[in-house]
Amino acid sequence: MAAAADHATPTYDRMKEVKEFDESKIGVKGLAESGITSIPRMFIHSPEALSDLKKPNSQTCTKKTIPLIDLSHFNSPTERHQLVEQMRDATSTWGFFQVINHGIPKSVLDETINAIKAFHDQPHEVKSKLYNREKERQGVMYSSNNDLYRAKAASWHDSLTIWMAPETRRAKEEDIPEVCRKQIVAWESHSTKVAEALLELLSEGLGVEAERFKDLGFLEGKLVVGHCYPYCPQPDLTVGITSHTDSGLTVLLQNQVGGLQVKHGDEWVDVEPIPGALTVNIGDFIQIISNDNYVSVEHRVLAKTSKEPRISVVAFFNVGTQADSDYFGPLPELLSPDKPALYRKFTVPEFNESFFSKGLDSKSFIQKVRL
Ligand SMILES: O=C(O)CCC(=O)C(=O)O
Ligand SMILES: [Fe+2]
């Protein structure tokens, strides 16, 4: 395969190509719209990663589906117990599930997707003024591949990233692009309410106080990311987003295009778009403090040749930085002589440093702190 062999050509100056792409501020959407029929080399993934894409069940989709959880019984004194159990089963085996009847009106979901699409649909002259990756971990960022300079290969997506909390990192409202400002602020408040409910259920599923996760500060670090995965002329040579795990609690809204896949055992399972549903997954921080009762699972997005771009809007929740000097580790309530801690303690800055300084394709923090 010529393209994959080129990948290893010693004369190829990858960093130069990456820099030129970044400085052009064109994004992958701009590349797609320029009419290219082959993708630049910097986007071509390694033969090992590409062979994983071609496993028989990965593109054609297995019959398996991730669990679907109905949150309508959240306030029911009699049915809540069952809901807690469903969530515990889903989070301990899949680490991923979809939720319906979560309380966010369908109109809000549609407006959120449309606003992020409208942002990415703006002309190059408008978007290029906003293109930046310098203000990492605060304010507003718009760029292609947040880990562009750290990852081994780039992926086929552009992202608008907006820090919402803690206050010290929060984007000024006037800095959020006007085309999606109102909708992002609304998505933040709606998704926070869902996250709060999920954190209660997750706490109860471990048999600890319902407020335990919230009290640890899990709603105090918050960012919203609006991804766009445009048409890709060679989806067999790259991915939409590289396989990775998330940090804390993730609440994701997707349009109807699909492409998100979750690793389950050695299979990749499609997360089917369900109108009105949200996709939820837990990340490394929660796997660690749950002492492996809950699992943080690898997921990725496939690149596609559909003309309609995939749009996803993600709310990431994790402990805020006001907890800088606190040590986190498996919750003491979960430990006993039979169930010793599987992880050492760590601080939030240590977690963030490790999480944000690596490419999505690097080894996870989990392996670093596992005892
Ligand atoms: O767009 C998607 O569906 C996945 C995005 C994702 O996994 C992430 O931003 O961490
Ligand atoms: Fe993710």
UniProtKB/TrEMBL annotation:
GO molecular function, one term: metal ion binding
Highest taxon above the source species: Eukaryota
InterPro entries xref list: DIOX_N, IPNS-like_FE2OG_OXY, IPNS-like_sf, Oxoglu/Fe-dep_dioxygenase_dom
Domain Fe2OG dioxygenase: 218-320
Record's keyword terms, sorted: Iron, Metal-binding, Oxidoreductase
Family: Belongs to the iron/ascorbate-dependent oxidoreductase family.
Protein name: Fe2OG dioxygenase domain-containing protein
Organism (species): Quercus lobata
